Amino acid sequence: NSAFQHLQQAPDDPILGVTIAYNKDQSPVKLNLGVGAYRTEEGKPYVLRVVREAEERLISDRSRNKEYLPITGIPTFNKLSAKLILGEDSPAIRERRVCTAQCLSGTGSLRVGAEFLAKHYSQKTIYIPTPTWGNHTKVFSLGGLQVKNYRYYDPRTRGLDFEGMLQDLRSAPSGVVVLLHACAHNPTGVDPTPGQWEGIRQVIRSKNMLPFFDSAYQGFASGSLDVDAHAVRLFVTDGGECLVAQSFAKNMGLYGERVGALSLVCSSESVATRADSQLKLVIRPMYSNPPIHGASIVATVLGDRNLYQEWTVELKAMADRIIRMRHLLYEALRARGTPGNWEHIIKQIGMFTFTGLSKEQVNFMTREYHVYMTSDGRISMAGLSSKTVPHLADAIHAAVT
Ligand code: PMP
């Protein structure tokens, strides 16, 4: 008899479970468009050249050791990460109002942010978009916040429900936390325009709400690190406070190294100093301190003018390949005369296309065409290549006709 006799078999994670099902499939034409990880035109995982170079430098530096990092990680990594998202000339950084903690990628940064807010912020409710990344609800609720939703995506237009979003924010209680995807909204690929961001900013500031940015795709959406940071910087420039969770999983291809950062942009240096001290109390009993390797890679790349320059080139090449896949898929559907309007494939941005395919159509494509994706019809464009686009187009065509 086991102390755990009562346990029920838990379902696979809705996103990571797609890969498990894919791995079991024996078909030579099988295609995994579930998980959001970049693949080369040959369908292979990609380690950036600048990452290899940084690793070689780190390994050959015999003065390095394996001592524990401080609770909030590598100080230069933290400074450089904040500068990357907030901008070279950010007033908040200049005024020393930002505190940053190296955390376990985007997820860990969100979780630490949630626990910090649950402990120290007056409001315990966070509003997240419908739909959003599947893990958000669990990260925030287990982090101690109550989760509510605001309207975001309009299935009719396959675009932003801007009016619905503003209405929901206006009728939410003052002061609540609002989660915003900094760019390349996951899963919809639909972002507000700069003008719409300004409207969102005005509502959030007028209601004294606390914006919490999730920045998992900086540089991956447009190919430009600055363009993709626009929304965050808009909110920082007005002098108000916010939180930012950054991930280096996608833009530096460091998925499994778990490198990210949580920044608190505070109203003054004195608040930031106290917030930093409290962040340490949140982190210490969770995992003591973060791992060395991935953050050292990021600090090396961000801190070296040449490596940084090369990184922006590699990043743009990845973003461009994804954008090319959008055009190839769109053209392939047009060539097949597939019923429906598929313009959203080229309009949406970032790693994913929210196809609008139903759960039944997704099941059909998996069963008949060995194409794997999340059941909400989200496909990872980064998992496509010019060789596999025709097969996907055939599958979509068959599913909708
Ligand atoms: N937020 C969003 C919106 C994401 O899409 C992801 C990655 N899928 C993450 C956060 C976190 O990813 P990671 O923990 O691997 O950095």
From TrEMBL:
InterPro entries: Aminotransferase_I/II_large, Asp_trans, NHTrfase_class1_PyrdxlP-BS, PyrdxlP-dep_Trfase, PyrdxlP-dep_Trfase_major, PyrdxlP-dep_Trfase_small. Its EC number is 2.6.1.1. One of its GO terms (molecular function) is L-aspartate:2-oxoglutarate aminotransferase activity. Belongs to the class-I pyridoxal-phosphate-dependent aminotransferase family. In eukaryotes there are cytoplasmic, mitochondrial and chloroplastic isozymes. Homodimer. This is Aspartate aminotransferase.
